[in-house]
Design goal:
8 helices; single chain; 196 residues; mainly alpha; globular
């Protein structure tokens, strides 16, 4: 990969990773509800899971989707259903009036890594990255794309958790936390609508 292609890939990785989407909305909500320290496994799961996804998409899954186009529709149906369920969970994460912290727990590492497989934005990013920057789909090119995303994705998405944590003090009242969670749920659904 030449210098210009490397820079273009890095820019694509940064822009696609830092812009709003399901991962970033959920990380922001988790940071606000549970704090940064408890959200770290979620953020690591997003970064690790997405990097692995790029590798697997690049070395074979992309060909499978080309061979069996019906898999695209099945993936969309499962993704929409799961994201709507997650939006419902986020909207209802606000604590009851008697509690001072959000009920529930943050997403775990493995859950966040597996979430990438039903995240329409992650699929779009992975397929686009492989198509543009590793079209021959050889191991070396795929690993370069995955490595660049691995380095750029984690700090980009983690910034959303940090922003959520920054809002935590303001969200100290149950009413504000409930409003924030419903807003994050609505934005998660909106991000799904934009991707589809």
């Amino acid at each position: 990969m030449d210098h210009a292609s490397f820079l273009a890939l890095a820019a694509f990785a940064f822009v696609s990773s830092i812009t709003p989407g399901p991962n970033n909305m959920m990380l922001m909500a988790s940071g606000a509800n549970f704090g940064l320290r408890r959200t770290i496994p979620h953020a690591l799961g997003v970064g690790g899971g997405f990097t692995l996804m790029i590798i697997l998409v690049g070395v074979g899954l992309m060909g499978l989707f080309e061979l069996v186009p019906a898999l695209n529709l099945a993936l969309k149906v499962v993704s929409v259903g799961y994201l709507l369920w997650l939006a419902w969970k986020i909207a209802h994460a606000a604590a009851p009036e008697s509690q001072g912290a959000a009920a529930g727990r943050p997403m775990r590492f493995v859950e966040a890594a597996l979430f990438q497989w039903v995240n329409p934005k992650a699929w779009t990013m992975a397929l686009t990255a492989i198509t543009l920057y590793a079209p021959e789909r050889n191991w070396a090119a795929v690993l370069v794309v995955a490595a660049i995303f691995g380095v750029i994705n984690l700090p980009s998405t983690s910034l959303w958790a940090v922003m959520g944590t920054g809002l935590r003090r303001w969200l100290g009242t149950p009413g504000r936390l409930r409003l924030f969670n419903w807003t994050m749920a609505a934005l998660l659904v909106a991000s799904l609508a934009m991707l589809l």
